[in-house]
Amino acid sequence: MKEETVNRLQQISEQNLIDIEQAKEQGRSVIGFYCLYSPIEMAVAVNAIPVPLCGTRNDPIPTAEESLPRNLCPLIKSSYGYGVSDTCPYFRASDIIIGDTTCDGKKKMFELMAHFKPTHILELPQSQNNPMAIDFWRAEIENFKSVIEETTGTDIDDDKLRAAIKLMNRVRKARKALMDVNKVKPAPMKGSELLEILFRVGFMAEKEHGILLMEELTSAALNSTLHDDEAPKRSAKRILLTGVPVGLGSDKIIHIVEQLGSDIVAFENCSGYKQAFIVDEDKDPIEALAEQYLATPCSVMSPNEGRFALLKEMVEEFSIDGVIDLTWQGCHTYNIEAYLVDQMLQETFGITSLHLETDYSESDTEQLKVRIEAYLEML
Ligand code: SF4
Ligand code: SF4
User: In this prediction, what percent of the chain has a pLDDT beyond 70?
Assistant: First the structure.
């Protein structure tokens, strides 16, 4: 990316923190979210600022390990470490944090977190197919609405919720349009660039500003003005990254792939395409939110059929050569599902995936490089 774009993205992050502080002084609430299953629209409906809180850096992990087991998923330890050490300004600014009973590690971590931060946990069904699941989840969403109303002192009616759904649909459409730029061959954006944009925009307090920025960068990427020179003409293998979420600081796999001359052109995980859904704007808003959010294709669901459908669609649409399936150490659900992912890819596309299990540290970088290099050569 052009240096001015990189600097601008960094400035946006700094400005965003100032904006959040000012907004708080003016009485706006900040709601911290940990997972894709909680409808962000509930915060948007009361003009609160939603912030994503999943930890993506290694720095706070030693502090977390003073209370949490060392063999826990690094995402959980990083998230907890930021909170307990009070080193994340977004966590500090949050009036309440919202979690879901997704995996065992995360839900038990929230119990500890509740000792130093107001916390609300949505009880997430473990299956999307059980007919009772949607009724139960709908009741959880209703209750979540009451929690947000109580926290912010603002009522949420259907009109506010519909307006929030419309706005968040526009955000998700803009994110998807940006990600879809890489359907072009060769991919106009490196995976690291795409991730940086998506990651930083995710923290922007004003959703309209985020939409404008993504639209601008989408058009720059399509018109080859995102870089000083032409879009990188690489003899790249087109790789899809699936599995656990990644962010700035937990992106070593992406950098290794790029160092080896290939590209992650698409992210199926919840940092990427899992967020590319649209909530029905015509239905009862609570029902629409309950249905769409419960359909999130994460491995905490059993079975998780939606992930396989999404992968099939993406492998075709992004002309994928190879798939890297990433698991954070201690993440049993993604670790186990890797077998089924590989099986499906082999049967459907004749593609063997590369399953990698790692953490946020750099200690295994060389080993990962060897495995990724061998995989890319094999493709
Ligand atoms: S991977 Fe699953 S559990 Fe983890 S944040 Fe994403 S949707 Fe939530
Ligand atoms: S990566 Fe796996 S273990 Fe870690 S928080 Fe997400 S679902 Fe849980």
Answer: 98
